Amino acid sequence: MAEIYINNSDDIERSIKRFKKIVDREGILLEVKKRRYFAKPAVEKHEKNKKMERKRRKKMMKTKKLY
Question: What residues does each domain of the chain span?
Answer without folding.
Answer: 12-66
